[in-house]
Structure formats: structure tokens, C-alpha cells
Amino acid sequence: MTSTEFSLLTTLGPYPDPEDGEVELDCWFNEEFKFILLPVSYAVVFALGLGLNVPTIWLFLFRLRPWDATATYMFHLALSDTLYVLSLPTLIYYYAARNHWPFGTGLCKFIRFLFYWNLYCSILFLTCISVYRYLGICHPLRALRWGCPHLASLLCLVVWLVVAGCLVPNLFFVTTSPRGDTVLCHDTTRPEEFDHYVHFSSAIMGLLFGVPCLVTLVCYGLTARRLCRPLPGAARSPSRLRSLRTIVVVLTVFAVCFIPFHITRTIYYLARLLEADCWVLNIVNVVYKVTRPLASANSCLDPVLYFLTGDKYRHQLRQLCRSGWPQPPTAASSLALVSLPEDSSCRWTASSQDSGCRTPQTERL
């Protein structure tokens, strides 16, 4: 056993990660992979996420107005992704410097808070899109009632505030501590508070991930079932097929980015709390650290969804790439993720034109 293979000595017990503390019995951890995997993956996410989300926000603000409800959710999703990638340079330095944090305790708390804040905001904004899409396809009159842009903006504000409020305890749990010549920025908390942190983290995961995940699956399942029904003149509609493909893509992104991270993190915390065997802790530690970049990759994949599902967005982005200056502002209602077949039983009625929400009969939800 060489120092390069197993360089970080930690301990068997509820706090084996060198970022989180020590206990009594020795347990060798192979952490060398982390000092390569995390800086490289975070650097890639930073470059791609910033390069994709900043033009997206610019297009939403200046070339795709006025917004409908779906465009409102998409803008806030892009804003959340941008705020997250802006926090990555400090983490890139931290892991490249082998767990050394020279930026102070306050910034450590803020960066850890920002990661989870934007992670759960992204999940909830995707959930809002799925619910609105479900209403538009299966209950169009309700979508008219609840799909007004100003109501969508209000809901987005509520999402930002509720998630921030739920994560306030994280600011108290997260801290720094010296370890020889380095300063650790704990991803969880100090060792003596770890059991309390696990209870807090489990409650947050159930509320801000478990419930939205279930709602998203139900909404997409019911929407897909409705779209798969054979309807006169619409069975081979390209918009219906595109909508089904979009549902598959969104669920795939959800499964790749969010589910593995939360499952492995839960197993990792439980293994530490229950003082599992050292070899089990090593395996769980490696798997958990590998899934952390997957959660970050959501910031890069969301703009791809905008491109695949928004006709006006795709057109404006192509104009921006070709000439450096997009077309004049265009209403963003066609940014929505699905379209209602003209002959569908869910089609808009003429009365929608007189409703309080400005929703044309051909508008895509």
C-alpha cells in the first residue's frame, strides 16, 4: 500500500470522509480519484453551463418576450443553473488543492448553500413545467385559469423563497476546520453534529426531491398516456411525437442527474451513521463522489432541452450563432414543451380568447 494509492487516513465510524472529521478506528480511504474527478468535471460543467445558460438568459430577456407560463419557468430554470455554475470556480480550486479552503468560513457556507439551493430550485421548476404541461394536455380549461404568466412568476418567486427557507439550517451546519496545513470546507457539518445533519438532510430530500419527483412522474405518465391515444387526424402528428420524445428526454435527464445523486448520498450518510465496515464505506464513498458531478451536469443539459423543444428559441439561437445578432423579439409562447393537436378533445375552445389569461387557440403548452 503506497501513499499515492491510499493517501488519506480517515477512520471507521460515522465520519470517514476527510472533509467531515475523524473518529476512533483507522480506515484507509482512497481519495486520490476525487482530486482529479471533481476539479475536471466541475471545470467542464462551468465552461459548458456558463456558455449555454448566459446566451439563454439573454435570449429570454431580450428576444423571446412576452413570456407564457412555460417560458417563465424555463427562464427561472436557466437563472438557477447560471447561479450554480458561478459557484464552481471556488470548488474547482478546493479539490484541485486537495481539500484546502482559503476563502473563509462565510464563503464556505454560502457555496455549499448555493449548491443545494439551485439544485432543488431546478427540480421544482422542472416539476412546475411538468404540471403545467399535464394541465395543458389533459385539462386545458384549468391551464387557462392557472397558466397566466403573472401567476407563474409568483409561483417561481415562492419556489425561490421556500427552498431558501428550508435550507437556512444548512448555513449553521456547514463550517470549516483546520487539518494540519489545510482548512477543510465541510460538505455536511462537524463530526459531533453529523447525526442531526442526517435527519435534516433526509427531511429536505423527502420534501424537495421525493415529492417533486413523484409529481413529475405522475404528470408525465398521464400526459404520455393522453398523447398516445389514437385521435382522428392527429395520430401521426409530428407535434405529438415530438412531445412524447420530449417527455422521454426530460425524464432521462431527471433520472441521470438527480436520482443517482440522492440515492447514493442517502446510502453514504447511512453507512457512516451506522458505522459500516471499512470496505463498504470505501465502495459507497467512491460511488457517491462519482454521482456528484452528475447532479452538476443538469446545468448543461437544461439548455439542450430548450433547444430541442422550443421552435422560437431554436430559431433565435441559430440566428445568434450565424450572424451574432438574433431576429427581432418574438413571443415565447411557442417555447412550450408540447402542442395540442387541432382535433384533440383537449383543444382550446373559443372562449379561451376571452379569458383573463392571454392564450391563443393555437398556443403550445
UniProtKB/TrEMBL annotation:
It is a multi-pass membrane protein. The keyword Cell division does not apply. It is found in: Cell membrane. GO terms for biological process: transepithelial chloride transport. Residues 52-306 form the G-protein coupled receptors family 1 profile domain. The chain crosses the membrane at residues 40-61, 73-95, 115-135, 147-172, 197-223, 244-263. One of its GO terms (molecular function) is G protein-coupled purinergic nucleotide receptor activity. Its main location: membrane. InterPro entries: GPCR_Rhodpsn, GPCR_Rhodpsn_7TM, P2Y4. Keywords: Cell membrane, G-protein coupled receptor, Membrane, Receptor, Transducer, Transmembrane, Transmembrane helix. One of its GO terms (cellular component) is plasma membrane. The keyword Nucleus does not apply. This is P2Y purinoceptor 4. The gene is P2RY4.
